[in-house]
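Handoff note, outgoing to incoming analyst
You'll be picking up this chain. Sequence as last confirmed:
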Amino acid sequence: MNEDPLALQRALIEAGDALAASGLVAGAAGNLSARRASGRVVCTPSGSSVAGLGLGQLVTLDPGGRPLRADQRPSSEVGAHLAIYAAAPGALAVVHAHPVAATALGMSRDLPDLCVTAEGAATIGLLARVPYLRPGLAPLAQACGRAAALGARAILMRHHGAICWGASLDEALGRMLALEHVARIVRAAPDAPRLTPEEVAALREGAGLPGAGGVACVEVTEQA
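Most recent structure output, in case you need it:
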């Protein structure tokens, strides 16, 4: 991740524009963030579209999650981003969106399995699903953190879209786009055979996702 603060902010703005152009968010939905080596996090603001943001609109948080400027409000869901950063040291960027096919898959009765293509196995990596918990509150953030701690880089939130992380904004955004692409394939061919766990593990190892193994998806339960 580029440590030039201005370059990082510009990258975040470009990623927001790309996310909006992808059609995976509508209105003021969705949010993005990036973490700097100092522990500070730069994120999109509350109540704004991720498209067309200016440098002055981005919110910088100190390592404790507090805005550096008292007149700025971060996205109400930044708690989930912070929980992922705390749980996954390799996470340097987080993207949350409401992709239609992936969101629908997240609400299915059965545990989703996207290992129908090599992309679904390797690019997305281990998938997790968390229960419906009210957006913006601590229980959902904590559930996302638990999912990331298990090694999931893509997380489906029941009734609330998806959140993906990566070692860069490009990786996190690319994972979100891949998640929706493969979810559409699964929707078009729900009975298609899945890759074997052994092949899934090999593909992930080759893609630089060691430790993800051959498990397609894990269910993360609510904790009191």
